[in-house]
Amino acid sequence: MPVRHLRFDVLTIFPAMIAGPTQESIVKRAVEAGLLTVRVHNIRDFASDKHHTTDDTPYGGGAGMVMKPEPVFLAAEHALAEAKSAGECGDDSAIVLLTPQGRLFTQDVAAELAERRHIVLICGRYEGVDERVREHLATDEISIGDYVLTGGELPALVVLDAVARLVPGVLDAESLAEESISSGLLEYPQYTRPASFRGWTVPDVLLSGNHAAIARWRRQQSLLRTLRRRPDLLARAELTPEDRKFLDSLRSEPG
Ligand code: SAM
Questions:
Q1: Pocket residues: Cβ below 6 A from ligand 1
Q2: What is the model's pLDDT at position 1?
Q3: Which whole number is the average pLDDT over 192-214?
Q4: Ligand 1 centroid to 100 CA: how many Å?
């Protein structure tokens, strides 16, 4: 099977914020294994004046500064050209503007983006970016949640991390399948050695070596957690008749 490859280009005025987290751990190993490419571009390098200005006051007045369109467009065009000459994109690069006004980032959105070959992430700052970036450059707008951060760098890293780990080969398929949310349910509780820590012991079933009993316990714990913490997920989860019976028994428990 041909190896899938995904390239990210991150456009930011704070490149060091992206460089550190993408040069550690799983993302670093995936880059070394040739599964991912991560390039960071400093938007300031594409500003035309001698002070490398990337922001200006808003037309119409008001608080704060707005990121100018020219350096953002030039940085994106540079990233697209570089990806093309490296053979790392087709004609369908996703150009994602990180914004609290975007569609909400979820595991489904991460899975959708993981199908791409090339993703450009635009990090805003100040009061945001000139509207023409949204209208004429971005192909997608993503929010990582209903709160406002000072910049798009942390959201870009969140998107990059969640998408990168779904690229085939970055993680082993088994750990992905059982994870919270991906599986449709929250994951069961996990334990490791020691079997007794400060008198708190690991459930006997996990030490039993009985694989069928362990699988049943884990499934039931997943169902129990999801019912208690995220009942909204159960409505969409794929449930067996046995799962439903177990959930009914929980629901009929007093208090
Ligand atoms: N004034 C903007 C508004 O009301 O939509 C918010 C600007 S915010 C202070 C600066 C930048 O941080 C944004 O341009 C965006 O790139 C990023 N940002 C902040 N919160 C975000 C979120 N929840 N999701 C994605 N990006 C976010």
A1: 98-101, 123-125, 127-129, 143-145, 147-152, 155
A2: 53
A3: 98
A4: 5
Contact assessment for residue 157 and residue 105, using Cβ atoms and an 8 Å cutoff = no
Q: How many helices (H) and strands (E) does the chain have?
A: 11, 9
Token code pair at residue 156: 């870009």
Domain boundaries, given as residue ranges, for the chain: 6-171, 178-251
- Domain 178-251 fold: Trp Operon Repressor; Chain A (1.10.1270)
pLDDT of res. 2: 62
CATH topology match: 6-171 vs 178-251: no
Taking CA atoms only, the protein residue closest to ligand 1 atom 12 is: 151
Ligand 1 mean position, distance from CA 63 (Å): 15
Indicate the average pLDDT of the chain: 96
Residue with tokens 């040069």: 23
Ligand 1 atom index nearest CA of 64: 1
**Terminal-to-terminal C-alpha distance of the chain:** 52
β-strand pairing of 66-67 with 55-56: antiparallel
Residue with structure tokens 């300031």?
A: 44
Q: What's the CATH number for 6-171?
A: 3.40.1280.10
Angle, helices 153-164 vs 25-32, to 10°: value is 60
Structure token digits, residue 25: 């751990």
Each residue's pLDDT tens digit, 34-67 = 999 999 999 999 999 999 999 999 999 999 999 9
pLDDT digits (tens, 9 = 90+) for 97-124: 999 999 999 999 999 999 999 999 999 9
**Torsion angles phi and psi, residue 37, rounded to 5:** -125, 135
